[in-house]
Amino acid sequence: MTGPTRRAVLAAGLAAVTAGCARSSGALEVAVVWSGSELGLFRDVVRSYPGRRVEVISAGDEIDALLRARDRAGARPDVAILPRPGLVAEYARAGRLEPLDATLAGRFATPWTELLTVDGQLYGAWVKAAHKSLFWYLPSMLPNPPRSWTGLLQMVESTARAGGPAPLAIGAADGWVLTDWLENLLAGFEDADLYRSLAAGEPRWDAWQVRNAFNDLARIWSIPGAVAGGAQRALLTQFEESVIQVTSRRAVTVFEGDFVAGTVRRFQPPEGAEDPRTFRFPGFGGRQPLVVGGDAAVVLRDSPDGRDLVDWLTGPDAFAPWIANGGYLSPNLSIPVQRYPQRTFVAEIRNPGDGFLFDLSDQMPGSLTGFDGQGVWKILQDFFAAVTARDADPRGAVDDAVHALNTAARRAQK
């Protein structure tokens, strides 16, 4: 996912399906994952499309369910914006997508293009991305940000002992926040082959690197006083509230992607308040992980006009309104870096080094991938609850998490 979870839109989307999915006369239909302010900004984008009028359908986290229902009803949208490369591969192999012109691949760095290439054919084009390896903080509360995992642990321990604002804000009610922690730790172990195999759904969760990552999570999350409001409250705290805990000085840091800036603007602190800054998720041995997410446009079968829209969406000017508003990154090389407020983030995702890894849960197949109350998101929430409990058994919690993930992977393979 590239931003906050997209809740409260499934009912409306499925209602449209059961109502007959009537298409506005002459309009192109685009199903998207965005809601709220992001949805409004995308509608501003497509108003400038020089072709047919574009009707936008918001499906949120349940876009897969919506598209399957629309497919069964014989009323496919022309284009869909998918949040997971795993879905692109699944749809392509099921014959539900139109292949795209190979020249579109040149608009993105090779690692990005490879994520949307299935059996040698390009099936998707990136329209939005997220830098997901960032901690956000107020300089007056953290004058010397940590530069290593050991330094982060020391900061959390010392801040928690001081008895002031909690060192960490964690929106654990959104399971994807917890998986992002795990993914950044896995990215620090320099084993891209293991990461790729986990993304493909292989049951290799008992690897030592995975166990070490879970042990590291257990250690930092279980520090007494580490989490704003306490661990049980964190399981009821959504992502946006965790950001507000930092801007309102109830917590020192919050870990999440570049889209935190959009939440800060949406819940603007009083005039004259400090602007938050960032430091990178610390790695090990000098290695700095870079985990990214992204939303990709695909053309559903039998929609020749959908190709034109995707070509336009991946041009240099389509997303100018969203870029000007802020809270938007893209790996699209045709958009000048100078247009972005967050130029450093753009440069890092557009020219990824060896540490570049795409969001793990967004690549996983079938039921293993995360969404509310299921898959890897739910397993990480159970793990968070277990290691922060008063009578916690960290070793047992790691064993349970590894076993649950391997079981889910085998189930997804079937």
UniProtKB/TrEMBL annotation:
<dbReference type="Pfam" id="PF01547">
    <property type="entry name" value="SBP_bac_1"/>
</dbReference>
<protein>
    <submittedName>
        <fullName>Sugar ABC transporter substrate-binding protein</fullName>
    </submittedName>
</protein>
<dbReference type="InterPro" id="IPR006059">
    <property type="entry name" value="SBP"/>
</dbReference>
